[in-house]
Structure formats: C-alpha cells, structure tokens
Prior knowledge:
By secondary structure, the chain is α/β, with parallel strands linked by helices. The protein has 14 helices and 16 strands.
Amino acid sequence: MDIPDEDSRYIEQIGKNAKAASLKLRMASTEKKNRALANLIRLLESHRADIRAANALDVENAEVNGLSAAMIDRLIISEKTIASMIQSLEDIIGLKDPVGEIAEGWVLPNGLQITRQRIPIGVVAIIYESRPNVTVDVGALGIKSSNAVILRGGKEAMESNKYLNQLFQKAIRDAGMDPHSISLVEKADRGLMVHLLKQKDSIDLIVPRGGEGLIRFVYEHSLIPVVAHDKGVVHYYIHKSARREIVNEVLLNAKVQRPGVCNAAETVILDSAYPDIPGVLKALTDAGVILHGDARTKERLKDFPMADLTEEGYHREYLSLDISVRLADTPEDALSHILEYTSYHSEAIMAEDYSVINNFTRALDSAALFVNCSTRFHDGGQFGLGAEVGISTGKLHARGPMGLRDLTTTQYIVRGNGQVRS
C-alpha cells in the first residue's frame, strides 16, 4: 500500500524518536516515572472542561457519520471517565516498578552467578478504536514499565486523543523526561498504519485493540510481533445446581451493565433441567435484551419471543442489548457448544456442583474463566493491575489483562570471576 514520501518519513521519524526515548527510559528512576504520572493527574484535574470539549467534537462527528451506539458509548469521555483515568494513574503509581526485578537466580558449580531480571520491551505500538481513555491508561503503563509508547487511535477519537496526548507530553517534559516517550500518530490514513506495522527496526511489539477486522488487518500486514486484544464471544453456562438467588443478578450485570464491551455476556447456555428458565429469560427481556436462538432453541422455548440468530450465528459478538440463547441437556453438551464457538476471551459458569465446576475449568482454554460471578471483572483495573494494555486471547507472552509486568521481558546477567569454558 503506497503512501506519499512525506507520510513515510512522518511514520519513520515517530519510530526513531520513540526508539531514542526508550533508551533513556531504561535508565529512568521509579521516582521520576511516578512524578510524570502525578503531573498528568494534576493536568487532567485542571483541564476537565477542555478534555470534555475536545471529546464533544469527536462525539458530534461520530453521530453525524452514523457510528454505532456501541462505538459512541466507548468514545464518550464523561466526568466518570476522567475520574476513572485519574484512579488508574493513582493505581499505577502505587504499583511496584517491575523493571530490574529479579525473577530468579542460581549459582553453578563453577561459581558463575546467573540471575534473570525484568527489563522493558522497548517500544510498544498500540492500535485502537474509540476509547480515548486508552491513551492515558496505556501511556501510563508504558512510562511506569520504562517503555516508549506509540499510540495510533481511530479517526473517530482524534480530537480527544490529540488533547490527551498534549497533556501527557507536558507531564513527561515537566518531569525532566523525553516527551517522545509518548507519541500519537495524528494521521488516520490506513496506509500509514501499514507503514507503521513495517517499522521492525524501531518498534518491538504491536498491540491491536478493536474489532475483528482491525485484528485481522494487523496480523496480515505486521512484520512486528503482535499481542492481540481480540473479540469476546462470552458464554454463560447456567447449570441446574446454580443458586437461583444469584443467577439473574450476575447475568444481568454481565450483559446489561455495559453491553458494548468485550467482557459482556453474548451467549447464555441454559441447562434444560435448571428450575427457573422462565425467570432468567424474563429478567433479560425486562431489561430490554433481545433474545436470539436457532430453530431448535426457539421451538423448545416457544413461550418466549426470540429472534433468529444473525448470519454469524453463535459466533456473534453483539456489543449491544442482544444475547444468543442455547439449551443444553448435559454439561458435556454445554462444553461442546463453548468449545465450538469460543473466542478464548472469557467464559463463565454458575453452579454449585463442584465436579461440574471442576470439569468446566479444566476443559476450557480461554484467557479467564469465571465461577459464580460477572465476567465484567475481566479487566486490568478490576484484577488489581492498575490498568491494562489490552486483554490478550493469545497464548504467548501474555494472557488475559496485559498489565504492567506484561510490558517487560527478561534478560540474563551472568557474573563470574575469570571462568572460561573448557
């Protein structure tokens, strides 16, 4: 995908600047890094109105351009969003700095002392859609873990991201650090993103956060290792032993509290012997949720209005007040369904039968499994990680919420006293 020479130079310069900044960040003290984050907290507090004004431009453009309700929900910066960003920064300041941590060490018979310690990855590029809070959360994790971060947000959040990036760079500069530690790609052309994905000499890791199309695009074009924050087709299995007094509340929280996010419930699998199937379905429909089912499910639950599955069937990630419904006559039937349609993000079971729970947690290979609680807890902040770069559904380097420690790799240090290999 050809782009003008000017744009090529623009992307290459961002990479070079980030690389140079990352080398300085390796030497930055925890105190200096925390000072930069504390500076940003003060700037967010004192510029609330300006942040909201920049965001209002993005929201207005999104509405004019017909973006989905789920995308607009992710785009909005409310007072609650700003408070959440500030809380994330405070949490990250309070976290132990992973850089320099000794993972393990031992002494060989020849006297060599070997230690494996944590070091920053280097330069991490984050590609994301909507969600301008990612600019702050990911930038802060990058700074605290001594990584330079390149941010490539979507055009729908450009004004918000530009303003937040300006505040971040001022916070870093005022702490005596290189402002290129945080960089924002301020051009939304997809051709520039392809060129960014080729900068293997300056960028060490790509983390895409967004829809299935974005993830596929990044995998197809990147020459750089990728840790993907993929879609969440989140399943709930309600076994016949589940406690009726918690089932509806937990499922509603997982589906309704914020339906446009990746850890929201998308499929409910009901044990055909569960004693209050009507109560579960009524609770969902009373909350405005539209039920979807295949022909067999609709026939068996014909007393409840149920729409057809979409073209994607049970693979669908709705990100809206819709949910797929399935009946299972046995726990094996439920597991078989999940294994066929899983996106390896989050799965949940509500049950009291220990053997059923144990089989569920042993059989499934998703990044996180939830027992008798809401999948909405699948989040870096909720897990006590301060924030997250993304929720990784892959199996290498990081799984689940990718937090501060996951932004480091390891390095061996070997200390001797003149030993030579014979």
